[in-house]
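Q: Structure tokens for this one, please.
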Amino acid sequence: MIAFILKRFANALFVMLAVAALAFVIFQFAGDPVEIMADPNMSLADRADLRERLGLNDPLVVQYARFVFDAMQGDFGVSWRNNQPVLDLIAERFPATMELVIVSTILSLVIGLPLGVLTAIARGRWHTEALQFISIIGVSLPSFVVGILLILVFSVILGIAPAFGRGEVVNFGFWSTGLLTPSGRAALVLPAISLSLYQVTLIMRLVRAEMLEVMRSDFVKFARARGISRWSIWFRHALKNCLMPVVTLTAMNIGTLIAFALITETVFQWPGMGLLFIQAVTFLDFPVMAAYLVIISAIFVILNTSVDIVYAMIDPRLKDA
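A: Here is the predicted structure, written as tokens:
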């Protein structure tokens, strides 16, 4: 087991080094940082001093090693646009993104699990077929289209939900949340629905497939023979045996939701990391872009490595994989 864990950690380290190399390459081919950061009236001597302070005169290998070493300590340099430490900018936006992702994940489970059970136990009925059709639409529609439609219906036509922003927030140290204020909760509704729709359809279809398989198993037939109620069989026995792949999918998709959140945050002007990344692309703020790439990749790697280790603990046969 220890060898398996060390192997997974080694794979994770290799992936992160590759991501760091990709982020470093972005710096090299995106343009001269001095020309982007320098004032048009800055003298040649001041430009040379700035280049020396940024370490741009060092060999590329040295610059890459410095970038990796600094990134491991959470130092991604200074934003070219805001002239602030990149980590401070991301830490300021991180709570908004995580709040959106967590609420979307909970929403997808609360909606997707019951719908998956319903479409499995009521096959062939018109409402389950309608749900299946809607789920195909949910998987097919791009998230920005869903967001625009939600804004059009609930903000423009009905006027019952905010179209942009995060509302009023409450700060607890470095963490901020809008869940404790009415305007914050209202502003969260549409972005959370937009981000969770794809996840809802995935969980619904996965639970349906697993439920159909479990309902054909012997222990369900024995439970029926013993006279156990249908609701108890469906939700206490069958659903319990379907949750492992759902938990795995949910855990692995958290990283996906964080990555996809940049589209939702752009549509709803949600002040999270995704909107910060889009602004960085617009203004060619490459330190922020590189930091975002590394942090999102680290979240993906941590989640995938954790799932692999948990799976190996549950099923020892996977240790040889």
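A few notes: The chain has two domains: 1-81+286-321, 89-282. The CA atoms of residues 154 and 160 lie 6 Å apart.
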